[in-house]
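Continuing from the previous page of notes. For each protein in this section, the sequence appears first, followed by its structure tokens. Read the first protein now.
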Amino acid sequence: MTTSTLRISRNVAGHLREAQLLCRPASVERLRLPSAGSPALDERVPGLLFDSIACVQAVILSASRNLPYGEVRQVIAYSKGEKCELTRAALAVAAKHPAFFSQHKEILEFAVAWARVNAAQMEQLYSLADERGERVCSVREAVGVALIVLAPLAILTLVLIMKPRRE
């Protein structure tokens, strides 16, 4: 494992811990599957997804508005309160559709974690390439980052769409 890969792995692990400690919804007990007693969706997953999407948003805004990526990324970052509210909303959706989320829990968690690792790698790449935070992303870079970060979610979508056709 290279030093940068180790640093990225630690970064993702830190995001997992932060997401877990960030917001313990009071309604988490209501969001458990009645039969299994386990959550319909791991409460850390939405936070990882939102962080991944924020990375893509920052790159696209940097390219489209000709603004430095570092500054845009800081502005785009969700506050703890925003993340908590979004997590509660995502958990409520999971609670409304427990059959879907329990059936696809592992693949959903894997795709979101994979997207977050890709986003962390892109963020690491931009931080190494631009120590002063003044670099503006090109449209080509924005498209590339969006494809890299969102690829796991696109693959997940395709798998879920194709699954009923195979059965």
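Done with the first. The second protein uses the same format. Note its length before scrolling.
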Amino acid sequence: MRNFTPDGRLKVSSSSGGSGAEEASFGALLRAGFLTPLLADTDGIALLQPLSATADADGLALAQAPTATTPLVLEAAAAALIPPRWITLTSIADLSAITFAVVGQDSDGGAQNENLAGPAGAPQDADGIALAQTPAAATSLALEAAAANLVPPRLLTFTSAGDLSGVSFEIIGLDEGGDPQTVPAFAGPNNQTLTTVERWNAVTSITPNATSAITLTVGWPDTSATVMSLNAYSAVNSITPDGSSVSNVQAGWPDSTQSFPLKLTLGIFDPSRRVTLTSSANLSGLDFQLSGTDAQGASINEILAGPNNTTVTSVARFAALTAISPLTLGTGTLSAGWPDEAYSLYVAPTAVEISHLYARNTNALLQTVDMTLVVDGVEIPWLIFDLDEDEVVSLFRGEAALPLSTGNEIRVMSTTPGAVSFTLHGREQTA
């Protein structure tokens, strides 16, 4: 059984049974430096960032008239799109004759560009479907040629300066998906404009159920169209049209439909460390894959369940982290960092005996030093002591040397990283 001294030190016995003079021997200098434990940083690897994007039709560029070869005026958000997202162009005008060159960065930060044909919107036209005419019972209105092919699909408007509320209209055509659609009785307007709930890809007939001397027109309201990029972007540098128009276009993005790895701000670690994920949202239903390498350069992957208004910590320690990837699409925000990590003061390359350990506080603040032994992967609390300014402590004061087997480790936490200097002495164990 291990016992502890009154001042919190682990009692150890020498395997060699050497004399007091041998125990007092310094042995070789094994290591010297400053205790630099790693203090927790919840966003040291990835700043707090959303896991998905919510649609914003003008998040990249507010509505503006395109001018040939002149880039659109972009919003600040265009410089950093986290997470990456597809790009949309939206207009109520037909800008399909204009090509927009999009230049930016792909989801990995590499250069990316593509050309997008402009959207083909439809500005308001109160009589685009049927010019002014009086309804006759059971007789279809005379329709304009445009009614046969409505691209983009659109709502219909019925406009009259008189009271046609007693007349209903049967509308037959195709819905926005191209399937047959019928509205059996659309009530007429009363000195107003009324709009259908349904969108139409084509209208083949509009037939009133009664006759009236009051005229009516049928058309459509402003109808926007949207085109979307083929690729996702993590930044947009420019969107440049090759033609001009007096009508406006705006640029933005749709709702996210795919998850992307977090944007990392740090990926190489010295010393190696565990990884934390922190969120104020409930992300416990999401799994995240951590990918990287350990201190020996071997590839490691760990699946970590997301936090629920808290912080979760990996089991593995990473010397390099290449990706933190949500395995499914989620909402909410998340940051990545690391927990408090003890300083690895010494890892025994072979069986050794630690004969002396000196520590000095070089800081004006009181330092608390907490030492742990790691024996065969098991952490064993060892020493806890305070150091005043400039105070020096000598461990193993006349006591037996501390034996460490190959791979055993001494880890240390201290109040202020870099404030406590140390020298460690020892020798190889003898049979």
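What the second structure shows: The CA atoms of residues 40 and 339 lie 4 Å apart. The longest helix spans residues 20-24. We return to this in next week's lecture.
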